[in-house]
Design goal:
30% helix; GMP Synthetase, Chain A, domain 3; AMP-binding protein; ANL_N_sf; binds adenosine monophosphate
């Protein structure tokens, strides 16, 4: 694995420079090398997937890398998960061992706690990894719209393909080499990008803990101190950073690049980023966990702001993943499901559920459930298929209404959901609007009526100071669905 080769070189060459910082701890490359070698030697004595439990401490990525070196798949589990979720994920994955970086007990599973890991002796040499590219590198559990977590195994080959592609994006390697800032939890696949881009380029990886992310002064202090060149984050997190005036190049002169991924990046957010960081290298990356973190990215320039932003440039898609609309190479300008094929795809869910995976005459494909369109050589996002609504006979894309609302002054973010009747039919549209102050509803309605046809104008509005978020930092639509059904609390 190229990743392991780079790890070895960096641990040898970068010595006392910090490799991982997080949760108030730091681990140098030299110490990382010793810990990875020691843990891998222990892991190599057994077989089967390994649960790695904790939060943002440097021991977490050290354990991931040890699993990769030992050729055992790892399953990252965050301390924010309820115990039952950890247990169930471990069971579904058929895990045989638990590395408890933070205290955790899973009955029946061989467990090594942090003290035991610290005490393992460094063999001094790197063991030879025999695992091939088809073997599983990690298993990430996605929330799954049905509520049943789906285990997504990703092969070592797919991970290498993803990293090769991500490093081929102009400017990314140079930014990452100066240090990478992490927002996402390690159980969320966005972190695969920041963790391993740092390992590939020798940049220090600085992780922001959950607590730091809810306390701006600590978080910004950590960000400034990191001196990082690249920030990998969701648009929600970027918007949160932008609410603070100190998030600017004057305070954080080293920040040269932002890789935004996981959600729609609105023009307004990009525009604000360029105002704060005029020379910013900004990419809007797109991809599901099933396709290994990201499969496409579009470089966003200041002049692109003002209209919808693309999620990919067809000429810059990875060599090991192909993107089709509707499952077949099709002409530009057709809206359809974004379908992926190629070596960067997961072999399929652990639980055996087919989900979006299907075998076709031309090989295995994965239907993302996302709608997209290819226009001018670029890929554009058109919302989720499962959020499409049939209302008053019309096919309605909540994303289109949300985008229209978000262009109105003062509105930071909007989410539009259907109000369902007893028979499951759509009775109306409800818009949740996030803004610093209660909006002037009559003004909002008036402006929206000028932009959208009548059947797309929501009949009900609700103000939220902050959208409910999933642990991954995305808008939590399941909570919003409950609010539509039972009323918003408070
Ligand atoms: P996950 O598997 O949790 O990483 O979520 C993947 C989903 O996030 C995709 O299928 C999209 O619906 C959404 N997504 C990821 N990146 C973007 C993006 N740049 N713009 C819009 N939606 C995105």
């Amino acid at each position: 694995m190229r990743l392991l080769e780079r790890l070895r070189e960096n641990c040898g060459g970068l010595g006392e420079r910090p490799a991982f910082c997080g949760g108030g701890e730091a681990m140098s490359w030299a110490v990382l090398g010793a810990k990875v070698r020691a843990t891998a030697a222990m892991l190599a004595r057994g077989r089967g997937p390994v649960v790695v439990y904790g939060h943002k401490e440097p021991w977490m990525p050290a354990c991931f890398l040890a699993c990769l070196l030992a050729g055992r798949p790892y399953l990252p589990a965050d301390r924010s998960w309820p115990h039952e979720r950890v247990r169930r994920a471990a069971e579904l994955a058929g895990a045989t061992l638990l590395l408890a970086v933070e205290p955790m007990e899973l009955p029946g599973l061989e467990t090594w706690d942090r003290g035991a890991l610290e005490a393992l002796p460094d063999p001094g040499t790197w063991c030879e990894c025999m695992a091939g590219p088809a073997e599983i590198a990690y298993i990430i559990f996605t929330s799954g719209s049905t509520g049943v977590p789906k285990g997504v195994p990703i092969s070592r080959g797919s991970l290498d393909h993803f990293l090769t592609w991500a490093l081929s994006l102009p400017g990314i390697a140079a930014c990452a080499g100066r240090g990478v800032l992490n927002q996402a939890g390690y159980a969320f696949d966005l972190s695969v990008a920041d963790l391993y881009l740092a390992v590939m380029t020798g940049g220090t990886h600085t992780a922001l803990t959950g607590e730091e992310q809810s306390d701006f002064s600590t978080m910004f202090a950590r960000m400034w101190k990191s001196g990082a060149g690249l920030l990998v984050a969701t648009p929600t997190f970027l918007r949160l950073c932008l609410t603070d005036a100190s998030f600017c190049c004057g305070q954080m002169g080293t920040l040269g690049g932002v890789l935004s991924c996981g959600e729609v990046l609105r023009s307004r957010t990009a525009e604000k980023l360029f105002r704060r960081f005029p020379k910013l290298l900004l990419y809007n990356a797109y991809g599901p966990t099933e396709g290994t973190c990201a499969v496409s990215a579009a470089r966003i320039h200041p002049e692109d702001c003002g209209s919808e932003l693309p999620i990919g440039e067809m000429a810059r898609c990875g060599a090991d993943i192909s993107i089709e609309i509707g499952g077949a190479p099709c002409p530009e300008g057709t809206v359809g499901e974004i379908v992926l094929r190629g070596a960067q795809l997961s072999p399929g869910y652990l639980n055996g559920i087919p989900g979006g995976f299907r075998d076709t005459l031309t090989g295995r494909a994965y239907g993302t459930g996302d709608l997209g369109i290819i226009r001018d050589g670029k890929l554009w996002y058109r919302g989720r298929m499962d959020e499409q609504i049939k209302y008053r006979g019309y096919l309605v894309e909540p994303g289109e209404i949300e985008a229209a609302l978000e262009t109105l002054s003062g509105i930071e973010r909007a989410a539009v959901l259907p109000r369902l009747g007893r028979d499951g039919g759509v009775q109306g549209l409800v818009a949740f609007v996030e803004s610093p102050q209660l909006p002037d509803w009559s003004g909002v309605k008036e402006e929206l009526e000028q932009r959208l046809p009548p059947w797309m104008c929501p009949g009900q509005y609700a103000w939220v100071e902050h959208m409910p978020l999933t642990p991954n930092g995305k808008c939590d639509r399941n909570t919003l669905k409950e609010w539509v059904r039972d009323g918003k609390p408070g």
